[in-house]
Amino acid sequence: MSQMLERLQQEKVVAIFRYIEDQYADRAAEALISGGITLMEITMNTEGAAGMINRWRDKYGDQAGIGAGTVLDLDMAKEAVAAGSQFLISPNLDESVVEYGYSNGVPVWPGVMTPTEIVRAWKAGAEAVKIFPMGTLGWKYLSEIRAPLDKIPMLATGGVDLDNIADYFKAGACAVGMGSKLVNLDWVRSGRFDLLTERARQFADAAKAL
């Protein structure tokens, strides 16, 4: 088990930063860290993503785990790793990305949906997989596929909120990915970083309680 997977299973929540403007990024990250969420994914379709990853790695050191999301192909994977990404997450399964991460010591948690995709990702070298889109599939789907595939750690992304987070963990998720429910860009752009910290604390406490 990689250090980053161990951290994922301990902390249980990954904050997803998508389309955040660079001018707000650092304060938003610090607001989440203050609230107890320290695993953060910057999606590669966010303008300046590689620069933010590089800066956050330098700025926060061991205080936070910084990864890249929406890593669709090998070129994106190389760019993210060069920037210092500690893990790669994608909405899709590209075995070349998994193999590249494995050979460079960077965990890749690819996006999968079906049992066939899950096993393919695992055989390609993925230590964990991202079940997506959970907002549509729901925690009951996760529970069903976990029954025969219980040895493969699964990160549930999409549809998770404070009122159902316990259901996802009871269904077998090792962690959850949180986008707009956690990184609320309206709060960010209006300077309400206190609200971000409070929301982060709520999710961090809910995860710890499980």
TrEMBL record:
Pathway: Carbohydrate acid metabolism. InterPro entries: Aldlse_KDPG_KHG, Aldolase_TIM. Keywords: Carbohydrate metabolism, Lyase. Pfam families: Aldolase (PF01081). CDD domains: KDPG_aldolase. Signal peptide: none annotated. NCBIfam families: eda. Homotrimer. Belongs to the KHG/KDPG aldolase family. This is Bifunctional 4-hydroxy-2-oxoglutarate aldolase/2-dehydro-3-deoxy-phosphogluconate aldolase. It comes from Paenibacillus lignilyticus.
